[in-house]
User: Fold this.
Amino acid sequence: MALAIAGAVFLHSLRRVSPVALRPLVAADFPHVRWISTKELAQKLDGAEERKILLLDVRTEEEFEVSHLESALRVEPGTTDFTHLALSPDALVVAYCSVGYRSAAVVDAVRQAGFEEVFNLEGGLFQWANEGRRLSRHGERVTEVHPYDEAWGRLLRPELRAPLS
Assistant:
């Protein structure tokens, strides 16, 4: 709830807020969540990581269909049962949503289910896209991101915002 109130203040009082700036607000509601920066994740994805990185996209199907990180699996926001994912106890799991709030809840739930190496992507997909990092849709490279709604979409560079339906 802290993010909803404080986020509204941020979005209405400032013209340009970095999605990363919302981390303290997300952390207020999810203090035990561990974070990974977009730079760290990009390095792990590009490097010779021996263990598989499981990317969880915690957005709606409509958002996911616009774009996502390559090889990400979509999980419904609010998911608490992860048995269908067949997670290995030593898996490296990174969850993301638009800015990190919905994914923080899933990271917290995965962590409470006994998994240790679970991280929330700092700044979410909006930060990833704003940095010009690769986005995919059906295996093809794309540049647009679903803006969630008109207010939150202001955290995306204008040329990255997909039209709202």
Observations:
- The chain has one domain: 2-160.
- The mean pLDDT is 89.
- The two ends are 26 Å apart (CA to CA).
